[in-house]
Amino acid sequence: MRRLRNVKIVATLGPASNDYDTIRALFEAGADVFRLNMSHGDHGEIAARHAMIRKIENDVGRPIAILADLQGPKLRVGVFAKGEEDLIVGQDFRLDLDKAEGDNTRVCLPHTEIFAALEPGSSLLVNDGKIRLKVKDCGADFANCEVTVGGTISNRKGVNVPDVVLPLAALSEKDRKDLDFVCDLGVDWLALSFVQRPEDVIEARDLTYGRAAILSKIEKPAAVTNFDAILKVSDGIMVARGDLGVELPVQNVPPIQKRLVRKCRAAAKPVIVATQMLESMIESPMPTRAEVSDVAAAIYEGADAVMLSAESAAGSFPIEAVKTMNAVAIEVESDPTYREVIDASRGGHKETVADAIVSAAREIAETTEIKAICCFTQSGATASLVARERPRVPILAMTHVVGTARRLVLTWGLHCVISAPVDRFKGAVVASTRAAVAEGFATREDLIVVTAGVPFNIPGTTNILRVAPCDERLIFAGDPE
């Protein structure tokens, strides 16, 4: 099944998409990657969804990527004697470690790490920023605050602390158990929540033992500040705009999104733009025009993937949401302006032999009658570099490593094909031409570009390029390299 667009679609599974037929319908509608949200569902439910995805993968004969999204630490206030209280602007309100039920003057905040990091002037956001508190004075077990934005505060509402780097690990005890479980299960990507510093990513990587690629969620101001260092140690990035929009002024989020997407592309690492992309489709079969424009903007920026959350997990129209996102992507990528934007944002990444090879592959493909670029890859590096170029022709990522094929599904433009191992470049050329024809990208009369690294099976050795005919008789009639 060939997609008619390059950007990938990530669909979250949940109660609305919890059976084989629905998940397969989501795939056929355009979902390339399925997200398992570890905040919802026990290990049995997660394992069942994973098994259904792998069965669909086997039935359709195409690699499918699975992304497990860890919950991360959850910071919440305690409970109130009345269940809720109304706070008004200007009043005093105290947060402390006293487990007694709260009232209009105070409530428990059972997180010593927050008090350790606070200082006078710090902000605390409650219930997704609907209530805002400013710290007047604080200590190791309390914070006396002034209410700057009032509203109703109720039991166990979430707390955000945007001004400081909290002395909290990105992995809670639950996350550690979930991480080990999903890695043993066989997910391809692991999304890490609450990332503040590169050390958070390194800790998670040490626990995966290479069983899954690490995708860092950028959802806190500290992660934006430390983004370059976080990107360097991550395999991919998710721009989680929901939490960013809570902890930062909302007008700051669009330029941050654009900047982070460009940095990921320069690093040849996939980036997902996520949160509230088609939010109204949770309850409506049609999106708003603003939501369509939001999805289109991420695609114009060159994001590798756009993501559906509650729309496909708990909404009333999960399949329609995927179809809508797919239709928007096809329309945007057929717009001549899209090509102008993508080409103009291409950097001059020619520092290595591999950079030069993939750049040459794109230029050859775009100036001659080339139907596709086929890249043989073991680790995924060659295919990722080709995708960074954002060529106008399709890219076939050829690999004998099933895990690599699944992981690369997340990357822009890659049509992943699991092939037999090869040990000579001519074998790679033959396999590429056969795949290009079989997958509908070329005919026997067409030419393709083939890239690979020689010797084979050594990661990061992209060093050879050939323009090859799809007619095998012409391949074997040429130089018997």
Q: Looking across the biggest beta sheet, what order are the strands in?
A: 1-2-3-12-13-14-15-16
The biggest sheet amounts to: 8 strands, parallel, barrel
**How many beta-strand segments?**
21
CATH architecture of the largest domain: Alpha-Beta Barrel
The CATH topology of the largest domain corresponds to TIM Barrel
**What is the averaged pLDDT score?**
94
In angstroms, what separates the terminal alpha carbons? 33 Å
Q: Ranges with pLDDT <50 over ≥5 residues?
A: none
- What's the CATH class of the largest domain, please? Alpha Beta
What radius of gyration results from the CA coordinates? 24 Å
Apparent shape: elongated
Helix-strand category: alpha/beta
The CATH superfamily name of the largest domain is Phosphoenolpyruvate-binding domains
Question: What is the helix content?
Answer: 25-40%
Q: What is the beta-strand fraction? A: 15-25%
Q: How many domains make up the coordinates?
A: 3
Number of helices: 18
